[in-house]
Amino acid sequence: MNASPEALVAAADRLLSCEPGTVNTLAPGLRARAAAVLLRMALDQALDAYWQRVTPSMTRIGKHRMLCLEWYAGHDTARRCRTTWSALSAACHYRTYELPPAPAEIHTRLLEVTALLAALRGGPDRASVTAAGDS
Length: 135
Description:
Elements: H1 5-16, H2 28-54, H3 62-73, H4 75-92, H5 103-121, H6 126-134
Helix pairs in contact: 1-2, 1-5, 2-4, 2-5, 3-4, 3-6, 4-5
């Protein structure tokens, strides 16, 4: 699949929004879980694109992308990325003993992913990169 992060977010939004008069064959929890998968894919692609611009060697290992993000994108953006990615990962996994994620919860994550896409599109935070270079 070669969709842009924005296209994935738009697809997740369509899954979450129930237009009046349409028949949905999928349960709300299933649609929310599918939207969470799309949102996590969008966030992963945005992180890949960010690191490809900043330093291409960081795209090799996913764990390092998240750990080093604070030094390049700033503390707030890195924290929001970790929190959102973790919440989406938890929502993506099916567990027989848990209820599926609520559409409202995933819609909140959709808004956060949209904000993170804009933050990551902007490039590295100059203050963070300067501070990392001074250490």
